[in-house]
Amino acid sequence: MPTLLEALEEKYGYAHTSDIEAEAELLVSIFVPKRPPRISVPTVLVLNDCGIDQAGSADDLKKKCCTVKELDLAQNKLENWNEVFNILSHMPRIEFVNLSLNRLERPIISPPVNRIDNLRSLVLNNTKLNWFSVEELLKLLPSLEELHLSLNEYTHVLLDTLDEDNHRSRNNSSNNDDDHQYEHSTSMMSSSDDDDASVGSEGSSCCNGYRKTNAHEGVRKLHLNGNPIRDWNEICRLGRVFPKLEALVLADCPLRSVSPSPSINDDINSMKNDEDDDYHLSYEHFQNLQLLNLSNADINSWTDIDRLSKFPALKNLRVQNWKLWSKCDSTEHERRQFVIARLPHIEILNGGGRIGFEEREDAERAFIRFYMEKPEQERPSRYAELIAKHGKIDPLVKIDLRPEKKVQVKFIFEDRIENRFVDVYKSVTDLKHRLGKLFGIAPCKMRLYYVDQTYENQMGPEEMKYPNKQLYSYNIATGDKILIEQKK
User: Which PANTHER family does this entry report, sorted A to Z (predicted)?
Assistant: First the structure.
């Protein structure tokens, strides 16, 4: 398998400086006012899926890659963190690194002495990296602002700033082995750094204990998509480890609630005071969070929407494909209105443009009208707030635009006139069969002409030639005429 340098030369065609100089002796020299492209390595280096498993010559790396700012090494064969550190140590300007789809689950045993001061964005999706290695990386990256840890099979977050887990979930509704292991592990939080080599992949599918760590004040964006985390307690740990977090992406995580202590009485809890502990614990570690993506969560209660309204800085929210929406007896537009009405500070919902003044006002008024017809005990606390804002609103007038079911029509056949009521939801064929019995004419020998009493002089009769057409489509009204003609 190639080294990074070999992959670099294979993809970009870089040759050694000595080869270029030897070739130059045979050619006429032409002055070009910039560095030769065969020597200059781009600042954005993309070497994904090249089979790279090691760094290569340290001296050559230092010469060729000293100006690199962005490095994409996704889907290679890197397994040893020492090789990764060898690469990064020779890129002093590096700001972005993508190591996704490299098998980096081995623990970081000998981290470098010098920190990587300029790295701001690190992508480690689908690397199966354990949490204790994440901690080592955070120590080495003081300037880190954006961290991607998606698809790493995390069920728990094994880092915390607390000495003990004071926010353990009290939900006992699930009795599987994973939950039992979680309850056992919360009492085993360890602040020691022992047994680094034995942690294996405990950050991915099991949890043997938590480690106390220091908060990282730099991380602003965290992506944790597609990890099977179910308990908001685990997310609260992230809020403590990253107190300045502004964007948290948790799409495709099967979270059951936005409460650290989910309860079967969620609907009752929604009526409690705003200062209730259940609400407070949901957001207390996310004071700076502006963007939250919870799409495809297993959340099934409007109470969790109410909890999200308490996040003090939250402006941008994604809550698509919740279980809650499938059980709502309402249109997508109505659901959007109810969510907007419950979240007074949200400016962007499920992507798209900003929520304007008119959309918000319409949503809040629709919310009031919906709940004003409900019993008082079913009204959420937001209802009272909106009544205080808008006052009591008159219900919308219900207008039925459907045509009258039966109208009286004058039927004329030769010299005979009959006034009869007809069902406008019947078809022309149905009408012919009825008239056939009344006038003694076979339906197949009958032609019908509709005469609108309002436009009789201007338009004249209209043949009713389509047998399956329903009568209301002719806009038939009481007082209109239908002429009957017998075919010869």
Answer: CILIA- AND FLAGELLA-ASSOCIATED PROTEIN 410-RELATED, LEUCINE RICH REPEAT PROTEIN
